[in-house]
Amino acid sequence: xxxxxxxxxxxxxxxxxxxxxxxxxxxxxxxxxxxxxxxxxxxxxxxxxxxxxxxxxxxxxxxxxxxxxxxxxxxxxxxxxxxxxxxxxxxxxxxxxxxxxxxxxxxxxxxxxxxxxxxxxxxxxxxxxxxxxxxxxxxxxxxxxxxxxx
Length: 150
Fold this sequence. Notes:
Blueprint: H1 2-15, H2 21-30, H3 37-47, E1 50-53, E2 59-62, H4 69-83, E3 84-90, E4 93-98, H5 103-112, E5 118-123, E6 127-132, H6 135-149
Antiparallel strand pairs: 1-2, 3-4, 4-6, 5-6
C-alpha cells in the first residue's frame, strides 16, 4: 500500500503543480487515497521531495533531479540504522527484518543503490526479500549491509 501511495504521489506531482501538503492530500483523496498529515509528511520525506520554483513565482513539489551516489548511500545507511532489526541470508536470498511499516521505504533506499549483484527486492510491512545473483555475492552483501548499519 505504501509503495502504491508513493508511486501515486510521484505521478501526481509530475502531472500537477502541487505546492502544499494540503493540496497533495486533496489530490490523493480525489484518487481515492485518504492519508493523515503525519503519513503524508513521512511520505514526502521518504521520497526526498523538494520544493522548486515555478515560472509563476510560486513553488511546487518535485523529485530531486540528480541524486548523488553519496546521498543515496547516506539515505540507505540512515534507513538501515533506524529501521532494520536483522539481516540474514539463505542461499542467494537476503531476508531483512524491519520495524513495522518501514520495509518498503528501506527496500526503496536499497534499490536506489543499484548494486549490480541485486536482481530485485520484494517488501512487505516488516520484511524484505532481496534476490542476489549467487550465494557468494549474497554473503558478501550481508557483510556490506552489516557495515552500513554501524
